[in-house]
Amino acid sequence: MNEEEKYLFDINGYIVVRDVLTADEITAANAAIDQHANRIQERGGELSLSGGSPALRGETGRGDLGGALSWEKPHCEPFRAMLAHPRLTPYMHEILGQGFRMDHNLGIITMRKGAEGHVLHGSSGPGFDPHQYYIFQNGRMHNGLTVVAWQLADINPGDGGLCVIPGSHKGNYPCPPALRRGETHSDFIKQITCKAGDVIIFTEAVTHGTLPWTADRDRRTALFRFSPGNMAYANNYDWPSSMLDGLTPEQRAVLEPPYHLRLDRPVLD
Ligand SMILES: O=C(O)CCC(=O)C(=O)O
Known about the structure:
By secondary structure, this protein is an alpha+beta fold. 18% of the residues lie in helices and 23% in strands. The chain has a single domain (3-253), classed as Jelly Rolls. It has 7 helices and 13 strands. 2-oxoglutaric acid is lined by residues 109, 118, 149, 161-162, 208, 210, 221.
């Protein structure tokens, strides 16, 4: 992570790393999703994410697809390769520190044309959230829960998808409810555009959400959440053997439970 990227992450709370996946890798990941498309669960009713906001309303819910790290070979492989990807590891070391770990299991987000958005949320002020934070101390940043979102389809201006209020990870006042619902000051809400193969990394402290999906092509994002190696947000890190079997030592290192580096925690090169 170079000085320019550190600067951008520090002021915005997110960064886009371009062209991480090759065309073949994108094709393989999408083929794996196609193969399991009958397991996509579209949110509706109480699981709706738009909070009744007219600005975020849609005709369908967001599609969620889990379990990809346990899928049969070759379909698990494109996603397992994202766990400890050599292009991403230097960013994770800078943002989360050595020994970083997967905190929440991988979730694939799909959105069809007309899918609703998601109310903005984030964990900056007024209180300090000891699991999801952004602080800068002793010449470097320290982050709690951090999202790594792999894009498997293009996201062009106006399509919708992930949006953030840049810089809000340093906010001290609560985000006003109407702003969280996308109903006021929408010029401060930035849609993050990218190409298939790009990766967006953002701190859970930055206020973020989802804009309704308007493109004919489906949105497809493989979303991981990572924490520093000493801590956990989620209450489960007893990963099933179907997920662990056949992993490389590097991929397995990222699935270690939380504990101190000093206790022989495996560290990626
Ligand atoms: O649409 C996105 O990428 C944001 C998802 C999100 O913030 C969440 O699921 O909590």
